[in-house]
């Protein structure tokens, strides 16, 4: 089973919030969120297979090619072990795809979703990056690829902290594991197309940096097609908005979860969050 960590309030009615990191990261990328969220919610942090402290924790029969469903069911297994029947889910980058997939596999487990740096569609630049990665992944050191991708996705000097955080976390992922995760790129396009066509109706807040030029346009489009979906754009922030502007990310996400827990749906709007 995956490595996980929990923080529980002394309140039997407290809701659970499950944090899901992206590829190459670990649960440590949420260090700027934990202090604020544990004031109001029970919190579950997971390290996805091959990442963080989940390296080497799966049986040998699982040491093979796997898909998004396998990785998603890893998370459900942790929920079952803790008897968490339903929770709010917060994800960043590729973690948003896993949460969205979980909402298809087990919608009854998802109260709401907060999707930061959400990946809803691969634009031409993203598809070219994936194609180049597949072309050179066996001849170029994987960390070169990861640094290159990080720079393309987070190019601004103000994104440096996010780039360094993810690159340093990626160094902890074995090359064989990186290759397994990279194979998942072959499944992304049809999966995202299905997600675009299927509206779950589950309350979903998209938190996107205003400088996340690769993925923000698709989110602006999707909220016009899906019910119970809201977008808040965080100023002076890139793809990893929970690191670039943690105070904005935390306040917006917590307010949303509180409203959902109280049975209040936010007013439909696209909000621009100013940040200094």
TrEMBL record:
Q: Which keywords, in A-to-Z order, does the entry hold? A: Hydrolase
Q: Which GO terms describe its molecular function?
A: hydrolase activity
Under the heading Pfam families, the entry gives: Abhydrolase_6
Cite the AB hydrolase-1 domain residue spans from the record. Answer: 17-250
Under Gene3D superfamilies, the record lists: alpha/beta hydrolase
Spell out the InterPro entries in the cross-references: AB_hydrolase_1, AB_hydrolase_fold, AB_hydrolase_sf, Epox_hydrolase-like
A GO cellular component annotated for this chain's UniProt record is: membrane
Protein known as:
Alpha/beta hydrolase fold
* Source organism of this protein record: Chlorobium ferrooxidans DSM 13031
């Amino acid at each position: 089973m995956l490595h996980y960590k929990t923080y529980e309030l002394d309140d039997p009615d407290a809701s659970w919030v499950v944090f899901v990191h992206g590829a190459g990261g670990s649960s440590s990328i949420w260090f700027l969120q934990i202090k604020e969220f544990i004031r109001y919610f029970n919190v579950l942090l997971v390290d996805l297979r091959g990442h963080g402290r989940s390296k080497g924790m799966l049986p040998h029969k699982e040491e093979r090619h796997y898909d998004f469903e396998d990785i998603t069911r890893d998370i459900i297994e942790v929920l079952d072990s803790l008897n968490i029947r339903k929770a709010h889910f917060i994800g960043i980058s590729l973690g948003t795809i896993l949460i969205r997939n979980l909402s298809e596999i087990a919608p009854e487990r998802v109260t709401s979703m907060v999707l930061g740096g959400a990946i809803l569609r691969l634009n031409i630049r993203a598809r070219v990056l994936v194609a180049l990665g597949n072309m050179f992944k066996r001849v170029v050191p994987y960390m070169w690829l990861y640094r290159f991708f990080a720079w393309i996705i987070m190019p601004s000097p103000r994104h440096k902290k996010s780039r360094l955080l993810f690159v340093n976390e990626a160094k902890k992922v074995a090359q064989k594991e990186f290759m397994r995760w990279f194979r998942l790129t072959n499944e992304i396009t049809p999966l995202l197309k299905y997600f675009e066509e299927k509206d779950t109706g589950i309350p979903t807040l998209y938190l996107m940096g205003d400088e996340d030029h690769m993925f923000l346009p698709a989110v602006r489009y999707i909220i016009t097609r899906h019910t119970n979906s809201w977008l808040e754009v965080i100023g002076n922030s890139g793809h990893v908005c929970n690191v670039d502007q943690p105070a904005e990310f935390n306040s917006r996400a917590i307010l949303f979860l509180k409203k959902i827990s109280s049975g209040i749906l936010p007013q439909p709007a696209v909000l621009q969050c100013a940040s200094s």
